[in-house]
Amino acid sequence: MTLRSKAQIILGAVLLAALLLLDVMFTGFLVDSADQTDRERMERNLSRTYLTLKGEERMLSAIAGNWAYSDKAWDFMTGANPDYPNIYMNRAVLTEIGVSSLIFLDNDGKAVFYRDYSSPDDESSPESEIEAFSGEGGAEFLRNIPEDGASGVIMKGGEPILFAVKRIRRSNKGGAEAGSLIATMALSPKMIQIISNSLDFTFAIVPVTPKEKEMELPGRRLDNDPSSSYIRGSALVRDYTGAPAFWITCVSPNVDIREAKRRLQMLFLALGAAAAAVVFLFGLFMKEQVTARLVRLRHEVETIRGDGGDTYGVTVDKKRDEIAELQRTLNDSIAFFEFRQGEKNRVDDITLSVYKRFSEAGSRLCMKTLEDIATVFWREDDRASRSAVLRGAREARKFAAYLGMEEEELVYIYTGSLFAKMGMITLPHSLLYKKTPLSPAEEREYKKYPIRTKDLMNGVELLRPAAPIAYSWNESWDGSGFPRRISGSSIPLGARIYAVVEEWNELTRPWPGRVLPDKDDVTAALRAKAGSRLDPHIVEKFIEYLHGGE
Fold first, then answer.
1. Would you say residue 371 lies in a domain?
2. Which of 8, 103, 310, 347 matches a 20 to 30 Å C-alpha distance to 265?
3. pTM surpassing 0.70?
4. Residue 298 half-sphere exposure, CB side, CA atoms within 13 Å?
């Protein structure tokens, strides 16, 4: 990449970063302003709804006072006007304004008379509303009504009911009390719809859950998810005891700022185009002042590199700037490089040759030493003779290479196979060379040799990575092996590979007087143990290796 290109990229990146920062700032300001507007509108809606419900409550209080402070109602309660309900209480207007019921109570708080004004499809009834006051504190509240009456909210199951209660007195509020009157208004879905129509937006009533009653609840809750086009708000309403009763929840659309954002993005696109023009003009300036001289310098350097003969360096401009300094430095470097390169090439050739011979000799010596250690304890007539150990280890390495394992894994396979039976040297001779079947105690002692093999290998840092192979190769695919009785893929892959190779080694290892089986017999014998002693997949791969991989 040229210096001019880098300068253009840096300038373009700076201008782009500045534009992006301004875009983010202005867009963020726009979004925050819209969010604030949405929240303030939702606050106003919740306040209007709350005040509307309070207005309904005050209206209900006025209705209750109009009926309670009446000479006719007082006469009815004292027995002087028994026809009062039939004459005066059939008011259709009460149904129209949403009053659910009027309930007359005597001074002991017992219902004397009530009238239902709710619509036929409204589940509210005077009986259910009287029952709502029968809970803890309700009866005590009715017996101790304040002098000027009271109003509030009471919950009937999950439905809130507005109520107002007044003492029944004469119209001049004189004389003794004749009982009390309760006016109710159930906040049914129909009533909520009527109130919503007057507010020009929709709200809902959500009762407070038992879990929420145990919490400190805020008076307002707002939820404005930036990814949503709606804002949700809730206002808490408490009942006449001060306990949380229900939430007024409102949902309204957010302010649509898409057009404003589109115009803002168009503005920044125009600024981006102007910035691109600035970068382009800057590139032309750099081309005239810098790039032409650098291109000439590059051509001269390429010519020097391509000649391979005597060179006199590059042309040094008469200008006093950084490029002229670079040209002079290049001339010095060219002369020094030619000298050093010749020396370095001679040293590198010698060093590489020495390193290569030393590495190859060290690897051979290390592996030969490991082979000698692994086989020094075995006699040719042993169950695990020297030749058999080397034969099995080398075949395991070749088979693992056929499977595509990495070089480091091949080393571990080879060393693990070499030392797989090393623990046998700790067994008593009488047990190791016994010709008759082993007793249970002798078999338990024999099955400990993989543990001793692992301990011996873990004591040598070079052999430690290969210890799991020697420790686990006696495990069987079906879990019947030893020493841990693990099964399937829980057995390390290297151990499963060596188990198959060792089975083949025992089948094909020559000794005097033995008739060796052919490939078909070996294949059949290996497949007979697939799925029980041996991994069936490894067995099939080894058979494929025997028939086509040699």
1. no
2. 8
3. no
4. 9
C-alpha distances in Å from residue 304, one per residue of 76, 278, 297, 317, 322: 125, 37, 11, 18, 22
Cβ 405 vs Cβ 414: under 8 Å: no
Residue 270 lies in a domain: no
Q: Tell the burial category of 476 from Cβ atoms under 10 Å away from its Cβ (0-12, 13-18, 19+).
A: buried
Closest CA relative to residue 366, chosen from 414, 409, 402, 423:
414
Q: Is residue 194 one of the residues assigned to a domain?
A: yes
Helix (H, G, I), strand (E, B) or coil at 360: helix
pLDDT at 452 over 90: yes
* Residue whose pair of structure tokens reads 């029968």 in the numeric block: 134
CATH code for the domain in which residue 77 is found: 3.30.450.20
Domain range holding 50? Answer: 35-253
Give the domain CATH number at 457.
1.10.3210.10
Q: Which of 237, 253, 269 is the last residue of a domain?
A: 253
pLDDT per residue over 209-234, tens digit each? 888 878 888 888 888 776 677 788 88
DSSP letter assigned to residue 460:
S
**Model confidence pLDDT, tens digit, residues 492-526:** 999 999 999 999 999 998 877 778 898 899 999 99
Instruction: With H, G, I as helix, E, B as strand and everything else as coil, classify residue 342.
Output: helix
C-alpha angle 352/357/359, rounded to 5°? 95
Count of the separate structural domains present in the chain: 2
Give the tokens for residue 103.
């309930």
Same domain, 249 and 388: no
Q: For residue 336, is it within any domain?
A: no
| pLDDT at site 148 | 80
Tokens of 122: 């409204």
| Last residue of one domain, picked from the residues 253, 285, 319 | 253
Q: State the Cα–Cα distance between residues 248 and 105, nearest whole angstrom.
A: 31
Contacts of 120 (CB under 8 A, 6+ apart): none
